[in-house]
Design goal:
It is a single chain. The chain contains eight helices and 13 strands. It is an alpha/beta fold. The protein folds into two domains: 2-108 and 292-309, Nucleotidyltransferase, domain 5 (2-Layer Sandwich), CATH 3.30.420; 120-287, ATPase, nucleotide binding domain (Nucleotidyltransferase, domain 5). The strands form three sheets. A five-stranded mixed beta sheet has the order 3-2-1-4-8. A hairpin with a 3-residue loop joins strand 1 (2-8) and strand 2. Helix 1 (36-51) packs across helix 2 (87-95) and helix 5 packs across helix 6 (220-244). The longest helix has 25 residues, at 220-244. It is globular. The two termini are 21 Å apart. Bound molecules: zinc ion (ZN). Belongs to the ROK (NagC/XylR) family. InterPro entries: ATPase_NBD, ROK, ROK_cs. Pfam families: ROK. Its EC number is 2.7.1.2.
C-alpha cells in the first residue's frame, strides 16, 4: 500500500509518496501560501500531482502547530494561516481520500520508530534541535500527547530561573540554551565577555551555523559555545530520562548534523546528572536516521496505519 505524507511548513508544502518500508518513491513541493483556503488548495494540488501517478490509499499531514486531541483540527500554527480549522475533514472532502493529521515532531518520531533509529523501542523520545527544540514521545508504538494534545514541550521547561528571554514569554527555557539560536547567543556572550581571539569576531552577528562551522574548524571560543550546548543537552536528556525513562533518545533537527561535536559530552553530562546515576541503565542517545523527509515519512506511515485499522471507515472521522 502506498500513502502520501505531506510536511506543511512555513516556507513550503512538501509531499512524498511512501511505501510500506518507509521508502520515498517521489516528492513534490510548492511554496506555502499565506491564506487559509489557498493553503488547503496548495496541499490538495500537491497531493494530486502524486496521486495522479501512484495508487495511493490515504494522506497524512505533518503540521508545525497545535493539533486537537482527535487529530482532525489544527488549533494554532504560528507560521501557517490555520486557526481552529478542521483541516483533516476539509482536505478529505477535497481529495476524496482519508486524511490524518499529526504534529510534525510526532510524525518524525513515528518515522524513526517504525523505520529508523528507534525501531522496536517500547519507550522512545525524539529531541529535534533546530531554531528551538521540538520533542516527541512514543510509548508502546503510540505517540504520547497528553490529555490536551500538547505534550511534551521539552524545549520550554525552565532550566534557568530569570534566564534568557524565550519567545514563548517565559525566561530560562531549555531551548534558549540548547538550540541553533542558543549557540549564537552563547557565542555572542563569550565574545562580549573578553577579547579571546575567534574567527567569529570577523562576523557582524554570527549565527548558530557560523558557530558550528567555526567549532568544526577548531575555533576555541566556538568550541566553548558548543560545550555549553552539550551540557544543556545533557541536562535535557537527564530530565527526559527522569520523567519517561526511555530506551532510546533520537537526536534530530538541523543541529544534529553537528552531533559529533557535542553528543559525547552531552551523553557524559546526562550519565552524571540523571537520578540514580551509575545505578541504572541509561537510554541510548543516537542521531536520527532521517533528516528532512522524516515528517513526511512518519505522516505517510500514520495514514497507512489509519487505513489498516479502520477499513470500514475509510473517510476517517
Ligand atoms: Zn519558552
Amino acid at each position: 500500500m502506498l500513502t502520501i505524507g505531506v510536511d506543511v511548513g512555513g516556507t513550503s508544502v512538501r509531499a512524498a509518496v511512501v511505501d510500506q518500508h518507509g521508502e520515498v518513491l517521489e516528492t513534490h513541493r510548492v511554496p506555502t501560501p499565506s491564506g487559509g483556503p489557498e493553503l488547503n488548495d496548495a496541499i490538495a494540488s500537491t497531493v494530486r500531482v502524486l496521486s495522479d501517478r501512484y495508487p495511493v490509499a490515504a494522506v497524512g499531514l505533518a503540521v508545525a502547530g497545535f493539533v486537537s486531541e482527535d487529530r482532525r483540527m489544527v488549533r494554532f500554527a504560528p507560521h501557517l494561516a490555520w486557526r481552529h480549522v478542521a483541516v483533516a475533514d476539509e482536505l478529505s472532502a477535497q481529495l476524496g481520500l482519508p486524511v490524518v493529521l499529526e504534529h510534525d515532531a510526532n510524525a518524525a518520531a513515528i518515522a524513526e520508530h517504525r523505520f529508523g533509529a528507534a525501531i522496536g523501542a517500547r519507550v522512545a523520545a525524539l529531541v529535534a534541535i533546530g531554531t528551538g527544540i521540538g520533542a516527541a514521545l512514543v510509548i508502546d508504538g503510540e505517540v504520547f500527547r497528553g490529555a490536551r494534545g500538547v505534550a511534551p514541550e521539552l524545549g520550554h521547561l525552565r532550566v534557568v530561573p530569570d534566564g534568557r528571554q524565550c519567545s514563548c514569554g517565559k525566561r530560562g527555557c531549555l531551548e534558549r540554551y540548547c538550540s541553533g539560536t542558543a549557540l549564537a547567543a552563547t557565542a555572542a556572550e563569550l565574545l562580549r565577555a573578553g577579547d579571546e581571539p575567534s574567527v567569529l569576531r570577523e562576523l557582524a552577528e554570527p549565527t548558530g551555523v557560523d558557530v558550528a562551522e567555526a567549532a568544526e574548524a577548531g575555533d576555541p571560543l566556538a568550541r566553548r559555545a558548543m560545550a555549553d550546548l552539550a551540557r544543556w543537552l545533557g541536562e535535557g536528556l537527564a530530565l527526559v530520562a527522569d520523567v519517561y525513562d526511555p530506551e532510546v533518545v533520537v537526536i534530530a533537527g538541523g543541529v544534529s548534523s553537528s552531533a559529533h561535536l557535542y553528543l559525547d559530552a552531552a551523553r557524559e553530562h546526562y550519565a552524571r546528572t540523571v537520578t540514580g546515576a551509575g545505578h541504572r541503565p541509561l537510554a541510548d542517545v543516537v542521531v536520527a536516521r532521517y533528516g528532512d523527509p522524516a515528517a513526511m515519512i512518519g505522516a505517510a506511515a500514520l495514514a497507512r496505519e489509519h487505513v489498516l485499522q479502520a477499513p470500514k471507515a475509510p473517510f476517517g472521522g
